[in-house]
From TrEMBL:
Coiled-coil stretches: none
Family: Belongs to the NqrDE/RnfAE family.
Signal peptide positions (record): none
TM annotation in the entry: 36-56, 68-87, 93-112, 132-149, 184-207
Name assigned to this protein: Ion-translocating oxidoreductase complex subunit E
Subunit text: The complex is composed of six subunits: RnfA, RnfB, RnfC, RnfD, RnfE and RnfG.
Enzyme Commission code(s) on record: 7.-.-.-
Membrane-related topology note: Multi-pass membrane protein
Keyword vocabulary terms for this entry: Cell inner membrane, Cell membrane, Electron transport, Membrane, Translocase, Transmembrane, Transmembrane helix, Transport
């Protein structure tokens, strides 16, 4: 893997994660992450749209003038979102109903439009596809982390409603971690999503700060070693 590809992977998963760093697409992220399966369904849909829209925009960019590029990008994204929406309606109807308006709202997800404008319109199809894949995986990972945590804390379960995505055979996938006499509503309701997202962002900032501090120490150690060697 080349250095450029490594940068694309690292950007999507950590350095420039659309949910943690760019803080894009927070409306659906906070709204549907009350369960792990809802988060997974929206994550997969967003990832697919990111990959195919980035690829398509990269292929047609030379024929799109600057004056009309945004409307064209939105039209391309909307076309793929419509395809994903129809497929979900046909094959995962329960999940389609559960996610509701947030499936068509993928069209307005700033993370997708932002990658189309900032990356796909300036790079080749392979790099653009990889960028869409990594950004989609990074976004999905945060969806799953937040959705899983909220489901466990709010309901005491994990993978509840798996049959909505995988079919009737998946009804037995639900894991009962612990039982509540009454659901922990704070975790299930929107305030719990804001608190959980804030904690995840804070954790990332702490990790980044420690890594930066370690790099500074390593640089100082190297400089001291050089000075000692010269003396």
């Amino acid at each position: 893997m080349t250095a450029e590809w490594k940068d694309i992977v690292l950007n999507g998963l950590w350095t420039n994660n659309p949910a943690l760093v760019q803080l894009l697409g927070l409306c659906p992220l906070l709204a549907v992450t009350n369960t792990f399966i809802n988060a997974l369904g929206l994550g997969i849909a967003t990832l697919l749209v990111l990959v195919v829209s980035n690829l398509t925009i990269s292929l047609v960019k030379q024929w799109v003038t600057k004056e009309i590029r945004i409307p064209v990008f939105i039209m391309i994204i909307a076309s793929f979102v419509t395809i994903i929406q129809l497929l979900m309606n046909a094959y995962t109807f329960g999940l389609y109903v559960s996610l509701g308006i947030f499936i068509p709202l993928i069209v307005t997800n700033c993370a997708i439009i932002g990658r189309a404008e900032a990356f796909a319109s300036k790079n080749g199809p392979v790099e653009s596809s990889l960028d869409g894949l990594m950004m989609g995986i990074g976004f999905t990972a945060i969806l799953l982390l937040l959705g899983g945590a909220r489901e466990v804390l709010g309901q005491g379960t994990l993978f509840d409603g798996a049959h909505l995505l995988f079919g009737e055979w998946a009804r037995g996938m639900t894991v009962q971690i612990f039982e509540f006499e009454q659901q922990f509503l704070l975790a299930i309701l929107p305030p719990g999503a804001f608190i959980g997202m804030g904690l995840i962002i804070a954790l990332k900032n702490i990790i980044d700060a420690k890594q930066a501090e370690k790099k500074v120490k390593d640089v100082k150690s190297v400089e001291r070693a050089r000075v000692t060697t010269v003396n």
